[in-house]
Specification:
Elements lengths: L7 E7 L3 H12 L4 E4 L13 E2 L1 H9 L3 H7 L1 E2 L2 E6 L2 E6 L17 E2 L2 H14 L4 E2 L4 E6 L4 E5 L2 E10 L6 H6 L3 E5 L5 E8 L8 E5 L6 E5 L6 E6 L9 H11 L7 E10 L2 E5 L3 E2 L2 E3 L5 E2 L7 H22 L7 H22 L25 E2 L2 E2 L17 H5 L4 E6 L13 E6 L8 E5 L5 E5 L5 H5 L12 H4 L2
Length: 484
């Protein structure tokens, strides 16, 4: 992509990690002109954020990449604990549940981060977007009408800018937004993608070795010949060179240095938890690691980042395409910052052994009940709750997630025949379903990001709720005439 030919866009996304790419996909399917820039010459090459939680699988499915995620990933292997070169016992590190109609994904899914990014980039290109690589932001300014971003290839004018440029965010630094946090663990860690001689180690388990110098794990990565190696260093500093990685494996496991046939990528880090003091500065938003940095324990960082994008994307779309007031964008920080704070606390407790990986790590229970866009309740659900999947009904088969999929709102009438308003189908789609335990009976307005925004026994108040979201009904419901 020739950046010099692009002088104006509606949204400039800085950073082509999972967050930036997911946001790019969401905006592209809404017809929002978007430019994604990335200072590196290519996508991130490592497996680092490899755990995809059930809620994030639902998000990726909605973005149109569910099949690719299923094809290239696999369930997290059961842990196998080793001691002195001997297999000691299996220990499953995760809560697993069989899929249900309401929750179709019951367990974590392993997918190397580089593969997730490849999948999202392919989807972005399919939607007509792309990434400008080798393009760094050097400064920015903003006024009442937009943002001027200074890139090392020229200046770009945008209505809004989203910083998805990682934990060392240039945008956050330029804006002077501080991060408040702590060191989760003083012991540094090494993460690497390695290949292991076929006869030396099986790919059926997530291999866990513990010792005085710290733990070391080797997790097979589905769809590849690689293992992800993670090692803690209670003493000394990690040597990330191929020779250093091989020596580490030989010192802490029953494998030899020669058993590591290739070191494909390696890095070191110190586990840290930090939260940006604010997620917005005028027309600039922070998302993903630019807004919150997690310990890798519990697999929350990438997942929380993708869901930042999913929350912000539809709101930008409503403002830029459907006339919603810019005040709608205030709800991004109001909804996402408390969630990020909760997930940071969860990751930290898991890292320190204070909490096990359980249902909370799946992120299916997260919601916005206390958020500014949540109004009413009906049946079994409160506004702000995640909208469950289930049979779509109507004799045609299919799932409710099929009905929800896309950039629109969905007005779902469950187990009730009360009259409904008429809408522009591109904005709000109406669907009736049979009574269903996960919902009970009532009307549920499902937001484009899969959460219930409004709920009630009839449509009273729905038009007033939708008006400031740029999605008012074309025919107003009058309860005095049609109320049952």
């Amino acid at each position: 992509m020739e950046l010099n030919s692009v002088k104006e866009t509606e949204v400039l996304i800085v950073g082509a990690g999972p967050c930036g790419l997911a946001l790019g996909c969401d905006l592209a399917r809404r017809g929002v002109r978007t430019l994604v820039v990335e200072q590196s010459p290519a996508l991130f090459p490592g497996s680092r954020g490899k755990g995809i939680q059930p809620r994030t699988r639902e998000v990726l499915d909605d973005l149109g990449v569910g099949d690719a995620v299923r094809e290239h990933g696999g369930p997290a292997p059961v842990g196998l604990v080793w001691q002195n070169g001997e297999r000691l016992q299996e220990h499953d590190m995760f809560r697993r549940a069989a899929p249900t109609p309401a929750e179709p994904y019951g367990q974590p899914w392993v997918l190397p981060q580089w593969r997730t990014q490849e999948i999202l980039l392919a989807r972005l290109r399919e939607l007509g977007g792309d990434v400008a690589f080798s393009t760094a932001l050097t400064g920015l300014g903003q006024d009442a009408d937009g943002v001027t971003a200074h890139l090392d290839t020229g200046a770009v004018r945008a209505s809004f800018l989203v910083a998805a440029d990682g934990g060392r965010s240039t945008v956050r630094r330029v804006l002077g937004i501080a991060m408040t946090g702590e060191t989760v663990d003083p012991a540094p860690m090494l993460v690497a993608d390695v290949r292991v001689a076929e006869a030396a180690l099986d790919r059926l388990n997530w291999h866990v070795m513990s010792g005085e110098e710290g733990f070391l794990t080797l997790c097979p990565l589905p769809g590849t010949a690689d293992f992800q190696l993670v090692a803690q260093f209670k003493k000394g500093e990690p040597d990330t060179s191929p020779e250093g990685v091989r020596a580490l494996v030989a010192a802490r496991t029953h494998l030899t240095a020669r058993d590591i046939t290739e070191v494909r990528w390696s890095s070191d880090f110190r586990p840290r938890a930090a939260l940006a003091d604010r997620f917005r500065d005028g027309r600039v938003f922070l998302a993903g690691d630019a807004a919150h940095v997690h310990s890798p324990a519990g697999g929350q960082g990438l997942n929380t980042s993708v869901q930042d994008a999913y929350n912000l994307g539809w709101k930008l779309g409503q403002v830029l395409r459907h006339g919603a007031p810019a005040a709608l964008l205030d709800s991004y920080e109001e909804e996402r910052r408390p969630v990020a704070a909760d997930m940071l606390g969860l990751s930290t407790r898991i890292h320190r052994g204070e909490q096990e990986r359980g249902v909370a790590t799946q992120q299916l229970g997260l919601g916005y009940r206390e958020g500014p866009l949540s109004v009413g309740r009906a049946g079994a659900l409160h506004s702000g709750d995640r909208a469950p999947d289930g049979p779509a009904g109507g004799g045609g088969g299919g799932r409710l997630f099929d009905v929800f999929r896309g950039p629109h709102f969905t007005l779902l009438a469950v187990g009730t025949d009360v009259p409904l308003p008429a809408f522009d189908d591109d904005l709000v789609r109406v669907h009736r379903a049979d009574a269903y335990e996960a919902y009970g009976k009532g009307l549920f307005l499902v937001r484009p990001d899969g959460y219930i925004g409004w709920a009630g026994e009839d449509a009273s108040g729905l038009a007033q709720y939708l008006a400031p979201l740029g999605a008012a009904p074309s025919v107003t419901y009058r309860p005095s005439v049609t109320r049952c």
